[in-house]
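Box 3.1 A note on notation
Throughout this textbook, protein chains are presented in two layers. The first layer is the amino acid sequence; the second is a token string describing backbone geometry. Keep the layers aligned when reading.
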Amino acid sequence: MSTKAGVSANPLCPGRLSPGATRRSFLQQSSLGFGWLAFAGLANRLASAESRRAQAHFAPRVKHVIFLFMDGGVSHVDTFDPKPELMKRNGQPAQWRADELSQSVSANRKWLKNLWEFKQRGQSGLWVSDLLPHIASVADELCVVRSMVGETPLHGAQSLLLHTGRSIGAAPSLGSWVSYGLGTENEQLPSYMLLNNDWVPNGGSQNFASSFLPATHQATPVRAKGRPVDNITPADPAALQRAKLDFLHEQDSASAKSLGGSDAVESAIKNYETAARMQSLVPSLCDVSGESPETLRLYGVDRANDFDKFYALQCLRARRMIEAGVRFVEITCPNTHGNNSPWDQHGELRKRHEENARITDQPVAALIRDLKARGLLDETLILWAGEMGRTPHSAGTDGRDHHVSGYTIFMAGGGVRGGMTYGTTDEMGMSAVEHRVDIHDLHATILHQLGLHHERLTFRFGGRDQRLTDVHGHVIEDILG
């Protein structure tokens, strides 16, 4: 093929002409190659830093995280935060003092009592309502944080805040940061798995994305219904598939080299190889038919309702993935009734909270019990959290609105103290008044348990060192065992 002066044929795309000198070739050919030597030195330093990065900063307490996302906002005053004063004032006008902690209360709203009875559970006497009887049965494993605070009572913004530490999105998710910081324990599997239940939460796929981190750290979704992962079964014999992968690797590597290095291309290469390795392991991990009948019943995989059994299936798969070495697993809730978010009950709170509890309560408790029985709970941190809570007041008698000035989450296992509560809200459940915890504190604590210092886990982007907790965050030392 003929070429013009100063240009050469592009070997990756016949017929396309490329400049004869790239920046890299210019460095190689200039000043007797000293520029290239300098570049090589920098590259070696970066490679060394990458190697050092995929290690804990100090001795980790846990190896894995399971995030049970209760999308939409569970009512804290109906689950883990009983309010006798709210019971007394039920139906009265919701007049409330104005301060910097509280969300304002609109006119014509009334206090709405706890809709389920609370009892003290386990040896610890932890207060849990009758809405969650199975979770109540493992109360002594729970560390309930009653003093969570958010930024704005909007589902999308709060969901992104919970997942990425920023309410505006365009930042890596918690799972991606964990993957980036520690890498994977099993080269045949991604380090971050999303066990989806046919519903993408508000905030969209940014909740689970790697953003400016390398693309290999984004979540790999596994659906509950049907085939767990698309194209997971090889279409070719092993030898032919290997040949295709080697050809793709050769072409992509050449392309990356011609571009002077490309994260997108390098990540594509790694993803091809990971996908090939997954073909041998993911199907068996997702297939729970070999589990004992007792285990299937424990989780509720044998339940008749599809929503119930598929959520149970994902919880059981989460345990299997942790056993196989996956670092971070997230499980989402199914959307049963076409609402904006599964736990978002502005009306029909009794009906829909009970429906969501029926779906999630038994499998979540089973997951905690099963991990403990297998000796895995101490090395696995479980986070049960929605992006917000719900108001202690209502425009009617069977609904609550968005609430971020004081709400509840819980953790279990992973070196946190069980059978305890941390923080308090005021007598009506309006605001966190003791030991306020924001999302950055929660993230800092999770990273700490994994052996990662939240101020040292950084990635250079946009001219500065970015981190999950930005310029915020404190480890919640009082809840750690």
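The two ends are 71 Å apart (CA to CA). The domain at 63-234+278-479 is CATH 3.40.720.10 (Alkaline Phosphatase, subunit A).
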